[in-house]
Design a protein that fits this description.
The complex is a heterodimer of chains A (257) and B (69). Helix content of chain A is 35%, strand content 16%. Chain A is built from eight helices and ten strands. In chain A, strands 5-4-3-10-9 form a five-stranded parallel beta sheet. In chain A, helix 4 links the parallel strand 7 and strand 8. In chain A, helix 1 packs parallel to helix 8, helix 2 packs parallel to helix 3 and helix 4 runs parallel beside helix 5. Chain A is globular, with a radius of gyration of 20 Å. Chain B is mainly beta. Helices cover 10% and strands 41% of the residues of chain B. Chain B contains one helix and five strands; from the N terminus they run ββαβββ. In chain B, a hairpin with a 2-residue loop joins strand 1 and strand 2. The longest helix of chain B has 7 residues. Chain B is globular, with a radius of gyration of 12 Å. The relative contact order of chain B is 0.29. The chains are: A alpha/beta (257), B mainly beta (69). The interface between A and B is large, with 43 and 28 residues. Strand 4 of chain A pairs antiparallel with strand 5 of chain B.
Chain lengths: 257, 69
């Protein structure tokens, strides 16, 4: 089946994207990512530990040649910090894509959309492939697209909350409002949530906590892969309309009398 | 003679004339996997060898760690 996701002209080989945070260790991270079948993995940008060089790094387990590395600007609370972090991430030389986050508040980790839009405009001008984490707000999604962002990443529920797709109607409106890919980012709790997002027509899903903090992350990663694939197929197949009354599946002719 | 610099927010001393590439080598850091900000300016990887550290310089050396959404 020819159903390839493209972002900024680049072919993405999976519709499930995964984060690399919150795992027990790098070995578990690697196993879960392999089970998920993800082609895109997100990473955070942090200071090198100067005093202790004995520790292994993420890239000793996750081969940046094998995956599309998507650095995030998690933890940035201003446009300036996010732009600076994105610049450093690109200078490290593994990716010119950025999952742009400008966080507004520690408790909700909801985006500061005003600062997000400001940072997005600057980074697009500097030639980044910009994928902004935003609210499930169709107007904001449109503004981000108009600013030149290459995909829109609306949250389904707060980061790490596992509450699922809180407002499927807004996600649908976003899908109708923009022509760039829409990737649900944050909020998924279990496999059925992922399937729902894909059935709505979302182009991909990024998740971290739902896999990394499951009792068995490797199993959950595989469950998510199947849910994303099933949801996508169901979307393409086209579901039946919902009806109030029954409609018999067996023929009414030829009944015995 | 040594000069004082700041690396990732901590004071440090290096011999005068040390290049960024030499510093990374001494710290056992693979230059291929990091990015460096020198006095708030990002340094192109090709310029690591030509960047010579001076008294009171500030460096940020970053890499990628596990992180998600």
């Amino acid at each position: 089946m020819n159903d390839i996701l493209k972002i900024a002209g680049r072919e993405i080989r999976s519709r499930l994207w995964v984060g690399t945070g919150k795992y027990k260790d790098f070995a578990e991270t690697k196993k879960a990512i392999e089970a998920s079948g993800a082609h895109v993995v997100t990473v955070a940008v942090r200071r090198v530990n100067i005093t202790d060089r004995s520790k292994e790094g993420l890239f000793d387990y996750i081969d940046p040649e094998k995956y599309i590395i998507l650095p995030n600007t998690a933890g940035c609370y201003t446009a300036k910090d996010a732009i600076r972090t994105a610049g450093l991430a690109r200078a490290a030389g593994v990716s010119d894509m950025v999952k742009l986050e400008v966080i507004g508040d520690e408790k909700t980790l909801m985006p500061d959309n005003e600062a997000l839009l400001e940072a997005a405009k600057v980074l697009v001008k500097e030639g980044f492939i910009v994928l902004p984490y935003t609210n499930d707000d169709p107007i904001m999604a449109k503004k981000l697209q108009d600013a030149g962002c290459h995909a829109i990443m609306p949250l389904a529920a707060p980061i790490g909350s596992g509450l699922g797709i809180r407002n499927p109607y807004n996600i649908r409106i976003i899908l109708e409002s923009v022509s760039v890919p829409v990737i649900v980012d944050a909020g998924v709790g279990t496999a059925s949530d992922a399937a729902i997002a894909m059935e709505l027509g979302c182009h991909a899903i990024l998740m971290n906590t739902a896999i990394a903090c499951a009792k068995d992350p490797v199993k959950m990663a595989y469950a998510m892969k199947m849910a994303v694939d099933a949801g996508r197929l169901a979307y393409l197949a086209g579901r039946i309309p919902k009806k109030l009354y029954a409609s018999a599946s067996s023929p009414l002719e030829g009944m015995i009398e | 003679m040594n000069i004082s610099i700041m690396i990732n927010g901590k004071p440090d001393n290096v011999p005068e004339g040390t290049s960024l590439l030499t510093l990374l080598d001494n710290l056992d850091i693979d230059p291929g996997r990091v990015a460096v900000e020198h006095n708030m300016e990002i340094v192109n990887k090709n310029d690591f060898n030509d960047t010579v550290l001076k008294e009171n310089d500030t460096l940020e050396i970053i890499t990628f760690v596990g992180g998600g959404v």
